[in-house]
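Quick one - inputs below.
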Amino acid sequence: MNQRAAILSLITPAYLWLALTILLPLSAMLYYSFLSDVPIGNREVSWTTENYRTFFEKAFYSELMLRSFKLGAEVTSICLLLGFPCALALAKSIRGRTKEALFLLIILPFWSNALVRIFSWTMVLRGNGILEYSINWLLPGTGPLDLMFTYPAILLGLVHSYLPYMILTCYISIDAIDNQLLEAARSLGAGKLTILFRLIVPLALPGIVAGSFLIFIPVIGSFMEPRLLGGRNGTFIGTIIEDQFTAVFNWPLGAALSFIMMGLVLLILFGFSPLVRRLK
Amino acid sequence: MKLRVFLKFFSCQWLIVLILGGSFISAAEIRVLNWQGYGTDESWALEMFKERTGIEVVHDYFNSEQEMLTKLRTNPGVYDVVLINSAYTGQAAKEGLIEAIDTTGMVNVGDLSPSMRNDPKLVADGKTYGVAWVWGVTSFAIDRSDFKNAPNSIEALWDPSHAGRVGWRDDAVEAVQLAAIALGQDINNPSDLNAIRQKLRALKPQIRTFWSSEDEWNQFISANEFDLATYWSGSASRSKNAFGLPVEFILPKEGAIGWLDGLSIPMNVPNRNEAKAFINFMIDPDFYVKWDTEVGAPTSANAKAVSMLPPDAFNRTTFSDSKKVANVQFMGPMEDGLREKIVELWQETKTYFQN
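Output:
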């Protein structure tokens, strides 16, 4: 009995905090998503499901949703392809001082403001910018790259912002793999590729899955990077939701679109849950 | 060593006393809500105003009319003066966001052109909800270094020789109204939204990127991202005079979007008299002539102020020529239903723009 009281007193603050910071604002938004108008000032509002119906009636919303999910999948895959080898090298090949220095370099981008990072990318990418200038200086006659305001520019900005998550989560699970296991495999004649795909990748799967979700979920809702780097090609469901809150003042529709996005993310999470359960 | 530390500490204390004292002594501080860099926040003007009245002015900014309305709705009793495009003044008054202004004692109100002072968008039931401040037009401006001859048609925005070099403001109403001008439709009540949709879709190969603030517009022009871009007349003269950019504003033969901006006082205003003094100062010829000649401004609603501009000023020559402004259509209030349709049309068009 005493132990139960102790546990309760220990976890209550955490749950209260969660309720206050996550559930309360979320339920306010859920409430908004069923209103006909924003209940501020002298406005008459009524209950409606129209905001949700709009999404299914207008084809372009689902088109943008799909586009955002595609962006999320691409950014996550690129981060995995770049981040996993990086984490593997950090965990198993590099030791001592060098490791500390490399970790610092990985975390360094987190110390600067995200907006500043994106604005510096605009200076690098734009016509006659730093990147174009350096490439033309190294290889004269390459001509303009024209990367600014394109889809690849958005990919570049997002991968740069989110790569550290993948490296760090993969590092933690690779680092936990016992070196004796790898030696045993090697002594039994397993090649490098066999060890990688039959031993390291399966054992590091929790880190890969965690990193993927940490990246995928914010990327599908991103709006700042697409807006600043994508130009005409920077319209996604995230920017449309942002429009509803800042430019159009249709909070109910913005809230409804956010909840539809959240529902789809939850569906994907459930789809992965057998995999996650097997990991335990 | 100890003495130095002591002195340092001592001088710091004095500084704190001075700062705190200063804020206690100053008579009043008013908070103005406006677009950034749009006249009310010129530092020389605020100094001039403080000299005359002792009132300090601080600013808050918005990037769209809807954002301005949101700020008024969610922050009652915070702002003293707000700039409202007259197309939205009626809505703001109806929602109870702004109060009727008693203009007695505001000496410069008498010099406003009567048609603007009494504009039905600003005055309802004989009550003034917005004091006419400046007016201008929205069409587009060109970077002169990218053009041999300045175009005279709005079709320049659709000209394939400037494909991928057009800047466009990411604003549903403005986008649809510009297309309506190009198609010869009424901007406040477009007759054929489908034709407008097709016209906007034709912009896909043209648009480089969207801009949302004057500051951003200037940066894109100086980084040579645009040959031409939609713009506001007052801002164009500012880009030219204050930032030295090779910019020329075009008043197309098809017409342009006209707007009249008024200054209003929000409901539950903290400092009503100071707010009225500020509005009166904003329509004063002393302020306007300096603003237009040294910085660049739209056309003042104060006829006396416009007549005091140099004879070759853009705001005197272009906008006094009744033939050139004959096709300008003024923005009026818009029904919520039509606005929703327009917003949806623009979002659908932006989706179509994706490669």
